[in-house]
Amino acid sequence: xxxxxxxxxxxxxxxxxxxxxxxxxxxxxxxxxxxxxxxxxxxxxxxxxxxxxxxxxxxxxxxxxxxxxxxxxxxxxxxxxxxxxxxxxxxxxxxxxxxxxxxxxxxxxxxxxxxxxxxxxxxxxxxxxxxxxxxxxxxxxxxxxxxxxxxxxxxxxxxxxxxxxxxxxxxxxxxxxxxxxxxxxxxxxxxxxxxxxxxxxxxxxxxxxxxxxxxxxxxxxxxxxxxxxxxxxxxxxxxxxxxxxxxxxxxxxxxxxxxxxxxxxxxxxxxxxxxxxxxxxxxxxxxx
Length: 288
Fold this sequence. Notes:
Layout: E1 10-14, E2 17-20, E3 24-25, H1 41-53, E4 58-60, H2 69-78, E5 86-91, H3 107-121, E6 126-132, H4 145-156, E7 160-166, H5 170-177, E8 184-188, H6 197-205, E9 209-213, H7 221-234, H8 238-249, H9 262-272, H10 278-285
Parallel strand pairs: 3-4, 4-5, 5-6, 6-7, 7-8, 8-9
Antiparallel strand pairs: 1-2
Helix pairs in contact: 1-2, 3-4, 7-8, 8-9
């Protein structure tokens, strides 16, 4: 199934987990504000099948999307799964009745979240589980040892194959790596928000993937104008330019753009394949 000709090629999270660098984020398959069912469940199923048909073998999800909705749709659309399809999920939060995102980091909450992911996804073991620690765009202080240690125990039990962390600092990554191997880090990062530049390079040296989210979030009007200039010069969209810049930024960067539309999925794949010139990159680097 995997298509190494996809933009960016592939990256080995581990010997048994080689993924396309261009993945797919399932968050948008839920309803508005990632809460409740989608407006068109049939289209959501079709998008997931189009993802697999395109050769993408890396799907990012979480049981707190919906909640439960995206995992149930993934199972409906794709189970039984292709042998080389890798599903990455997150734990560490839950959804309340108002759609909020309270923390759920206690050992019993993390174990329940892993079991819920297994049940809804119809899996016996999860390929990768990320511990979400911070808020939407920045880490929180504090030790992650107890929470990450709980996931490490579940890995030892065979419920999880590999571990990652999300919205964390360099210090928290080091803390996690002292407990168990970390195969990926998922943090807020894009052209305009480059606080993790040094971290990305350090992780690349250690063979650890970096997965940025919100690739167009947090731009000022001036920054958006510069991005638009490059997009117009190349005859494409700002989103395509942002995806292409991330793929060219470092070989350990994996992308998980999401969409609930088959048309937009095709556009994302095409856009990520844009080859930026040195002039393009220099102009985009001036945004940061």
